[in-house]
Amino acid sequence: MIGTTVPRMPRLTEEQKKQRAADKVMRHALEAEERDRRETLKRLEWEKNGTYLTRAEFEANMPCRGCGRPFIDNRGPWPAQIHMTPAESAEYAAENKYYLDRHRDCQAYRTGIDSSRITHCGFCFPPPPLSSRQIDVIRKEFGRASKTPEHELDIWKSTLTCGHTVQGRQHRTSTSRTIAVEDCPECSARRGVVRAERIGPAAPPPHQTVPDQPIVTAAEFDAIKLVEEHKVALRLAEDRLKQIRRDAHRGVSFED
Ligand SMILES: [Zn+2]
Ligand SMILES: [Zn+2]
Ligand SMILES: [Zn+2]
Any idea which ligand is nearest the CA of 70? Predict the structure, then answer.
C-alpha cells in the first residue's frame, strides 16, 4: 500500500498564535464599528428623507415608507409551524422567501408587530413607532438606570480600534463590557472596542455608621453588675413570696 503524505502545516510559534488572536479580536471590533457606522448613516438618511412614520400614520395603517408594505394586517401571529395548515405553511414559506430575497445580506433583525404577519427589515427601514405605553416603560427603565448608586457601578477602560482608550461606567452585575462601540473623543468618531478591562468600583461602599459604644469605667462596671445581681435576687424573692401566699390560700402547708 502506498502511503500518501499529507503536507504538514508548520507549527505556529507562541508569538504567531498571539498575533492571530489579536488580529481576530481587532477584526471583530472593526466589524462592530462598521455595523454601527452604517446604522448611524441609515438613521441620518431616514431623518433627512422623512422615512419615519408618526404614531398617528402608523395607527392609520400607512404602509412602511421603505418597502411599501403595511405593518398591520390584523391576522394575528403565525401559528407554530407544526400546527400550520398546508396553505399556511405555503404562505409562511412565501413570506420568508420574499423577505430573504431582499434582505439576506442586511444582517438585521426583522421587525413586525405581534398581531400581524408581515415582517420588515430592521436595517433598510425604520422600526414602527413606539406607543405611548412603550415610551413610558422605556422612560421608567432609563429613570431606574440613571438612579443607580455610584457604588454599584464599576469603571471600565476600553481600548478602541484607533488605539485610544476611554472609560465608562457599568453595573457590577455585568462581568464583561457590554458596549461594542464607543465614542472616541480624540478621534471624534465611534470606534469598536478591541478589549476592555474592569478598573474597579466607581465609588467606595457607603459608610456604615456604627453607634458609638458608651465608655464604662471599671468601678461603674462593678456597680452595674451588683445592681443586676440584686435585681435577680429581688425577683426570686418576690416569686417565692407569691408562691407562699398562693399555697396558704389553698390551705396547703409545706415544710421548707
Ligand atoms: Zn418595510
Ligand atoms: Zn434590508
Ligand atoms: Zn480614537
Answer: 1
Residues 6+ apart with CB under 8 A from 202: 150, 151, 153, 154, 155, 169
Residues around the ion ligand 2 (C-beta < 5 A): 103, 106, 121, 123-124
Number of domain units in the chain: 2
Tell me the average pLDDT across 155-183.
Answer: 93
Residues with CB under 5 A from ligand 3 (ion): 162, 164, 184, 186-187
Whether residue 163 is found in the same domain as residue 70 = no
Of the listed ligands, the closest to the CA of 38 is 2
Domain membership of residue 71 (yes or no) is yes
Q: Provide the residue range defining the domain that includes 113.
A: 19-135
Q: Give the pLDDT score at 254.
A: 45
Ordered alpha helix ranges (H), the chain? 14-49, 55-59, 86-103, 132-146, 218-249
Q: Could you tell me the three cell numbers for 213?
A: 459604644
pLDDT at 253: 47
- Residue at 2 is within a domain: no
Residues 85 and 151 in one domain: no
Q: 43 C-alpha to center of ligand 2: Å?
A: 13
How far apart are the CA of 75 and the centre of ligand 1, in A?
A: 17
